[in-house]
Amino acid sequence: MDTAQTKDIYTEEFLINMGPQHPSTHGVLSLELKLDGEIVTGCTPHIGYLHRSMEKLAENRMYTQFIPFTDRLDYVASMNNNLGYVMAAEKLMNIEIPERAKYIRVIIAELNRVASHLVATGTFAQDLGAFATPLFYCFREREKIVDIFDRLCGNRLTYNYMRIGGVQFDLSDDLIDMIKVFIKYMRPRIDDYEQLLTSNVIFLARSKNIGVLTKDLAISYSVTGPNLRASGVKWDLRKDLPYLVYDKMEFDVPVGENGDSWDRYKVRIEEMRQSLRIVEQAIDLLPAGDPTVKVGRIHKPAPSEAYFRTENPRGELGFYLVSDGSACPYRLKIRSPSFSNLAVVPELVKGVKMADLVCILGSFDILMGEIDR
Amino acid sequence: MQPSEISGIIKARFAKAQDSAAGDIIVPGEILLDVARYLRNPPLAFDNLHCITAIDRKDKVELVYTLYSICGHHGLTLRVYLTQGDLNVDSLSEIWKSADWLEREVYDLFGIIFKGHPDLRRILNPYDWKGHPLRKDYSSPAIVAKPKL
Q: A353 and chain B: CB distance < 8 Å anywhere?
């Protein structure tokens, strides 16, 4: 168009609501965007659409009754949430669990980490326009893990499997065989994803140098998990403050270099490989015995406090339990990783194109269930 | 660094800081900002404010700050006691960015006013919500009563 036609066009910044119902916001997240043409100049997230007041509900539930609620926090990695809660409760009650339970917990938690990273990878590729193929591949493999969990505890999404003092059911021999078959099947599949995405020109163009999160900013915002490691901070609770039997396992902590969206994707791919390594070792070392100590259903811990954090697929999940000597917690605080991870997003999206905002949001792998609680 | 070393350094610098029974540090609300600035920089270098939460003890409200130093690999729990009539404390959002949303959450659920916070709005509840749900005196008909044991 020549200048005679364009000079009368009136331009201004305008506000647009992205969400709460939007396929790229991964749940009911509402972003109030200020746009200058296609460029994002301001971003205000509004959260709380999924707020179910979990922390208040916990004050009226017994310690064991709260375990199924933790499934509904991060519903893509329910086992890890169960684990974090029961570990905090065990710390509060000074319960020592059997060795076998520790190994089973590690196996199950790592399998769920793989399942969660598969969802993250598939949906991230979908967000970038790789329509359906990577998503279907990732969900095909996730299905195998879900089948294992289904055989283990009878549920496919909200498992409610971990117990204060151990686990609900023992890991049987045929389940161990199933897991071994899965690991053999899964390794080449991860290579497949890498062939499909890692050096794909379109994928690189869309994700390299997009949403660069620097080391200092990540630590200052208390970003955790793969997002922190992608920024080059070698920080993994399983290595740095080991719980269960992670100190006996041999695994690497993958870190990124630039902290861009591509690094966050790559760290998750590498973490899947490491998780499979951990599962393999834990199966080899799995001791015999009863995986549960009998502790009863009603717990009345002495007035005290316990804070326990675990490395979840999305970052550090912390449960802060306060007891007043009664059968229900006096206060329960859930420190969810996605909450802090989302807080940094408005800072990263200033000045990027609207389509890159979708890429950044997808690469952070946030989950509204644990942000809103 | 051991917890006893950390508490020794803080108590040497701030006379009003005290040890609690659980090994945490209790500081009065009026020096919180100074203590936080001191903690952020070397020698202690707490670069990560991991979590802020509050506990309503009926007679007082306890604020709990969980700090961690990723570069130095040590942790600290900081406590501030607020009286029910005066729920004001300085905001730490200028020191650690993570405090922004965490303080908004505590304000939303407990009604604690963080002075100097850039944008103190509700975060989990709707903006027009009445009351602060995690206070012990908050009641709503939708809350299920405690089971009798």
A: no
